[in-house]
Amino acid sequence: MSDNVRIQSVREALTPGCHVEYAVDDQPGLVERARAYLAHPAAGEVVEPRLAATVMLVSAGKSHYRRFESPLPGGTVIEETVEAAPVDVFMLRRCSTMAFVPDAVVFPGGGMDRRDLEGDVPWAGPAPEVWARAMSCTPERARAVITAAAREVFEESGVLLASDASGAPAHDARGDHWAAERAAVADRSLSFGAFLAEAGLVLRSDQLRLRSHWVTPESEARRYDTYFFLARLPEGQHADGRTTEAVEAAWIAPGEALARFDAGLLKLVPPTISNLTSLTRATSVDEAWNLPFDGHVRPHPVAHANGDVVMGCTVEGA
C-alpha cells in the first residue's frame, strides 16, 4: 500500500474504496494467531466462513430511566434519566459461556441454518435477484441470507418482519409475542417457512436494508461471512431479549453504546463498533434507513514496521 494512502479506523464511517485498520490487542489470542498466520500463511488450513446475518433493529429514541449502585465504596444508589437520542438500536449481551465473542454486546443475528437454503419461505418485496446485485452474490445465497436475517431477529427479539398477503403488518392476536412458535423455530422443531405459511404471512424483504458485509480474517479458526442489515421496528410490535444466547437486552442510542465501550462498561467487537459509528450519523430513523452501504469489509492481518500487528483491508463496493 502506498505511504500516502490514508488509513482510517472503525470509529470513522466506512465507504467503498477507503482503507481501514484496527487493533485487536484487547481480544485474547487474536494477535498471536495473526502473527502465526503472517509467519506461515500456508501452514494451516483456512477455515471456510459460515454464512451469517445480523439485523440492526432501530426505533425513534426514547428517554431511559436507569438505577444502579455506585462503583465507589459506600456510594449511594445512582438514579438518572438519559435524554432521548434521535435513534435507538436494539442490542443483546451474549452469554459468557458462548464460544464466539462471549459477553459481547451485539445486534440480533447468527449463522445461517440449513433450512434457510431450502427456499420455502413465503416472500414479498424485492426478489432474490435484486438482492443478489446489491450483495454481490448469487440469488440463492441472497435469499438464504435474507431468510436467516428475518428468522434470527424473530428468534432473538420476537420482531417479525412479515405481513399478510394484503400487506397488513404481522400482528400476534394472542398477545404472547408468538411465544410457542418462536421457541419452536429457535429449537429447529419448526421451520421459519412453515411458521409463516401456517400463519398466512409472507417475509417482507423490503423491511430490510443492507448496511455492510464483514468476513472474519483467514487467520481465525472460527470464521463468519456476515451481512449486516437495518430494519425499522414494525408498528405494533416490540422487541425483547427472550433468547438463550443472551443475558441482557435493551434499546440504546448508538452514541451511548460507543461511550460505554470507551469507558470500559461494555464489550464491542470491531464490526459492531463500525456499524454503530455509521448509525451515529443519522438524526432520524428515516435517515438511518437511507444511509449508504458501507461496503464489503474483508480484513486480514497486517504487520507494521514497528512490530505491531493489526487487521486491515481496502473496503470494496457493491
Helical amount among residues, as a percent range? 10-25%
Spatial separation of the terminal alpha carbons: 22 Å
Please identify the structural class as seen in this structure: alpha+beta
Note the beta-strand portion: 25-35%
Oligomer: single chain
Mean pLDDT: 88
Give a count of the beta strands, DSSP E runs of length 2 or more: 17
Secondary-structure element pattern, one letter each: EEHEEEEEEEHHEHHEEEEHHHEEE
Q: Kindly provide the radius of gyration, computed on alpha-carbon positions and rounded to a whole number of angstroms.
A: 20 Å
The biggest beta sheet reads: 8 strands, mixed
User: With helices defined by DSSP (H or I, 4 residues minimum), what is the helix count?
Assistant: 8
Describe the overall structure.
By secondary structure, this protein is α+β, with helices and mostly antiparallel strands. Helix content is 24%, strand content 27%. It is built from 8 helices and 17 strands. The chain has helices at residues 30-39, 128-135, 139-157, 179-186, 192-198, 254-262, 270-279, 285-289; strands at residues 7-8, 19-22, 50-60, 64-69, 77-82, 87-94, 105-106, 109-111, 123-124, 162-164, 201-204, 209-215, 224-232, 246-252, 296-297, 300-303, 309-314. The strands form 4 sheets. Strands 3, 6, 7, 8, 12, 13, 14 and 15 form an 8-stranded mixed β-sheet that branches. Strands 1-2-17-16 form a 4-stranded mixed β-sheet. A hairpin with an 8-residue loop joins strand 12 (209-215) and strand 13. Helix 2 (128-135) crosses helix 3 and helix 6 (254-262) packs across helix 7. It starts with 6 loop residues before the first strand and ends with a strand. The mean pLDDT is 88.
